Give the backbone structure.
Amino acid sequence: MTNCCDFAGNYDFSCLPEIKKLEQLALGCDYGGTSWTTRQQVDIIVESLQLDPDTQLLDIGSGSGWPGLLLGKLSDCNVTLLDIPRNALLQAKERAADDDMTEQVGIVSGSGTSLPFRDRSFDRVSHSDVLCCLPEKLELLHEARRVARDGAGMHFSVILPTTGLSAEEHDEVLETGPPFVGVDGDYRDLLHGSGWRVVECQDVTGEYEDSLQRLVDGFIANKDELGQVLGRDDLASKRKHREDQIALIKRGLLRREAYVATAI
């Protein structure tokens, strides 16, 4: 798992065997992913989106294929992975081949705010912790609605500041959270304004905190091998960054939510 949304640089980092070992500890997967979706949460997404072999799923900001590839593998749906970093897409292509999924997976280079697809092309849309790494949140939601068929379902997770924070507390979250963790208004309002109806919103902060703690524990337990790969100073910095995020959660300043929405 990586410190922030450095995109291409993060995927070079996340594909290292030592980092995939941490990913397995924290999330229960080894795709070299950069979202905080756990293996258990993937099962929930499959069920909430009712994915099946007849479904056309678009996974925006798919990175190296987590969790989009596993969504496709578990449900046999057709999945299109979209992201910008070439190294991430190459990793996803290799993993799809390794998992014998080449025929059901499409891999496309493109931006979530300007999707290279026709209107009403997909039955389902997903994105995992993408909006907190992107300033153009409303633009992505509008584009997702444009390419979604009427009645299509969307599942996404996002890290965000708790409401009602003081200016000082809000600044703390902006400094320590993902690079674009701040949001103007409320995600429910953004969804409504972009053509989506909220079906469900779950607070998954507890799971997020647990994953962060497992990551920190992994830093500690594997400090010698990680120090050789990352350098002791970089390792210490990464560990402190995650410990700071845990502290924000414990103080009630930072949370993670998972949404299910329907295209209207």
In short: Residues 232-250 form the longest helix (19 residues). The mean pLDDT is 95. The beta strands are 56-60, 78-83, 105-109, 122-128, 148-161, 196-203, 254-263.
